Structures are given as C-alpha cells and as structure tokens.
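EI: anyone free to look at a 80-residue chain?
SC: sure, send it
EI:
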Amino acid sequence: MLIMDEPHMASPRPAAILFWLTMAIGFVGVFFEIYFAFVEPALGVQVAALFLVGITGIVSFLRHFVFWRSGGFAILNAAP
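SC: here you go
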C-alpha cells in the first residue's frame, strides 16, 4: 500500500540512494582494510576507520537527519 497523500511525505529515492552509497563506501573500506592488513597493518586500521566510521557516518547523518522525510516514507510503505 503506497501512502504518499500526506504533505510532509517525500520520495524514497534520495534515502535509497544514500543507503546504497553507504553500503558501497563500507565495502570499499573493508576491501582497503584487507589489502592494507597484509602490506602495512597500522595504515590499514587508519584507512578502515576513515571509510567505515568517517565517510559512512557523514553519509548516514545526511540520510537520517537531512533526508528523514524520504526515509520515513520508505519505512511507512514497507509495512504490509
């Protein structure tokens, strides 16, 4: 059931794009951590922290606090 008749609702597209961007950045961070774990472990931890905590945190912040209407629309329409 699609609920979009309320004026405060927005399209779920921005939240979905930011969600998949968060996942992709997380995968890149894990890849770099595995790569640098064998080359230089200390650098691997720093790079992983940058990607997995820093960049994904910023994108998640945008998704949850700037595009909250878009995410709320997706949650409301996921219910049966």
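EI: Helices lie at 13-39, 41-66, 68-78.
SC: 👍
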